[in-house]
């Protein structure tokens, strides 16, 4: 059964508020003003309330009182725990994805990475995150395991929020790692894909801790 109008509005509100959280437009600790958010999006408070309830259920909003929510503050401990989970499951997903990735998939990723490497614009950070999402989410999807894919998506949200809220923007982080992942995927060998992804996550952890 298709969703009604309120359901579609709630989905749209969910995506909008989620992006505001991920992009640090709504940083950790921000008190959520349901009425203002609804008015800004031009929706009623019912779909906005549904959207906020979904985000609360996913752990991105926390309840202060019966009526007040705030954006969850992702601590260093949260971040490291999320990376630990990613280390356990993302190499596995990359290895599984080798079976269903097509040459066109890899060609597309290489093209996007090359464009990112050549980009010197002020919008580079946003473009970096779009590529990062594209690569990791494609591999999660191509793993063929929807539960694995869902968990990767949730853990990456925590690490992304922490990095965008805590670490100063840097020029083109992780490009070499991503290139090695694509090279490993192109071999068609699951163990190489697993190793490249595991090395990437170890390097992410090291870069963040060295920069704190």
The gross shape turns out to be globular
Low-confidence stretches: none
Number of alpha- plus pi-helical segments: 9
Question: How large is the share of residues in beta strands?
Answer: under 5%
- Could you spell the SSE succession in H and E letters? HEHHEEHHHHHH
Keywords: DNA-binding, Transcription, Transcription regulation
Domain HTH gntR-type: 7-74
Protein name: GntR family transcriptional regulator
Structure, explained:
- With 212 residues, the chain is mainly alpha-helical.
- The chain folds into two domains: 5-71, Orthogonal Bundle (Arc Repressor Mutant, subunit A); 76-211, GntR ligand-binding domain-like (Four Helix Bundle (Hemerythrin (Met), subunit A), Up-down Bundle).
- The chain is built from nine helices and three strands, in the order αβααββαααααα.
- It has helices at 5-22, 34-41, 45-57, 76-97, 103-118, 124-142, 146-166, 175-187, 190-211; strands at 31-32, 61-63, 69-71.
- It has a three-stranded antiparallel β-sheet, covered by helices on one side.
- β2 and β3 form a beta hairpin.
- The longest helix is centred in the middle third of the chain and has 22 residues, at 76-97.
- The radius of gyration is 18 Å and the shape is globular.
């Amino acid at each position: 059964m298709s969703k009604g109008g309120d359901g579609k509005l709630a989905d749209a509100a969910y995506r909008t508020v989620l992006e505001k959280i991920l992009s640090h437009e709504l940083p950790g600790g921000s008190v959520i003003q349901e009425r203002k958010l609804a008015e800004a999006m031009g929706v009623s408070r019912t779909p906005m309330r549904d959207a906020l309830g979904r985000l609360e259920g996913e752990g991105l909003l926390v309840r202060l009182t019966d009526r007040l929510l705030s954006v969850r503050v992702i601590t260093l401990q949260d971040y490291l725990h999320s990376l630990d989970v990613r280390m356990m499951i993302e190499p596995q997903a990359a290895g599984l994805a080798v079976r269903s990735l097509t040459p066109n998939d890899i060609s597309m990723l290489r093209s996007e990475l090359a464009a990112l490497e050549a980009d010197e614009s002020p919008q580079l950070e946003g473009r970096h995150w779009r590529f990062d999402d594209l690569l990791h989410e494609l591999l999660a999807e191509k793993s063929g395991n929807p539960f694995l894919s869902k968990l990767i998506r949730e853990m990456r949200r925590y690490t992304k929020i922490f990095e965008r809220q805590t670490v100063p923007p840097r020029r083109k982080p992780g490009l070499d790692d991503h290139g090695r992942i694509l090279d490993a995927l192109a071999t068609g060998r699951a163990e190489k894909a697993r190793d490249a992804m595991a090395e990437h996550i170890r390097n992410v952890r090291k870069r963040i801790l060295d920069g704190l």
